[in-house]
Amino acid sequence: MANMNSRLIFAIVSSACWSAFQHGYNTGVLNTPQYVMTKWLSEDVLSTSNSTLEVTDPKVNTVWSVVVSIYCVGGMIGGTITGFVADRFGRKGGLLLNNILVFVAVGLEAFSKMASSVEMLILGRLVIGVNNGLNAGLAPMYLSEISPVSLRGSIGTVYQLVITMSILLSQVLGLNSVLGTDSWPWLLAVPLIPAVLQCCMLRMCPESPKYLLLNKGAELRAQRALNYLRGDVAVHGEMEEMRQEAEKNKVSKKVTLRELFRDRSLRRPLLVAVVAMVAQQFSGINVVIFFSTEIFTAANLSPTQSQYATLGMGAMNVVMTVVSLMLVEIAGRKTLLLAGFSGMFLCTVGLCVASLYTTHIWVSYLCIALVILFVVTFAAGPGSIPWFLVTELFNQSSRPAASSVAVTVNWTANFIVGLSYLPLASVLKSNTFAIFAVLQFIFIIFIAAKVPETKNKTIEEITAMFRQQL
Question: Can you give the pTM of this predicted structure?
Fold first, then answer.
């Protein structure tokens, strides 16, 4: 790829890869070892000398729900403070400091079993959630600001790619044959490795050139950073664009959250960014993954085979995110979002209809195919594009505040889906898919009408598009 070089690749790996690893790994790490950890809760933590609780006891389920869901609460907190951290410490500086939370969280989680303390486990999950919420805002922001315009989409997709890879890794490590045993504290200690690697590697990378010039006014440092990232490519054109943006930045100054909502020229792109984040979480991907094992079992796969089929589905998610990375600069963001949600809509309708005829074995195999196709279409666009789209829609003065709002909304939507889909599934069963089919149709209409194509456009060109709509 043009403009891609070893130094830029090193900066991408040092920033986004290790940050996204934390996000993906901690999202999926509790799924596979759930039974062995709830058994620890019921036998060692919640039971008393007078009574012993079963794994299925409502008290155990409630405590486990808190352990799982508190992670999203942490993500919301992290998302809320993203703008402050990005402006106060810089994009690179914020990512480096954020690793302190990893060391605190791992200490609490890994030693919770030794201390027989579920409170330590819950607090650890909250802290690692704050870390991941910050990562979800800071890393895409840093990627957007170090990327050449022609590669901004492909590089932005890297964050979601590593999320899918690390979710898959967490599921593999959580198997009974690996670390999904009484050794689960080691499973929760794995995030220390990418934290240490990031602390060592990211220190050797420059701060975002845009942050240095537009926020700090350090033109010489910004040019040095840009020279480092571009290698042999001349940077005069990019520096001139940044200077022009800096001049406008002096006039507009830093945008606060209040101004973000009050300024009509900012409300439109904010609406697009927020709906994209909501659409990603309300697309039904979590429900399809939840029902996948049940669907695989209905096709006469054994529980072990179903578990490995679910891992295969995760691998397909990784593969298609790689494909998305290659397509995003060719097909464009809007095209991939429309294609992804349209494919998911057709698969969801198919699952609604097929669930009525699961007594036929061939229908069960059709359901497996639809589930896999659903994941494929999600990974093709809706899974990755919302994360970096928000950084493309705003200039330097409003990007931190907009990222804070968008990331907080994403984690909030994730939290709502996590709390509501189990009660919905218990009442509606597979008819739950119908709700998501309606939502997907609404998102398709919104994307077609409101989301602009940002491929190969500078930030100034994109913001000018929104000003023309006023």
Answer: 0.80
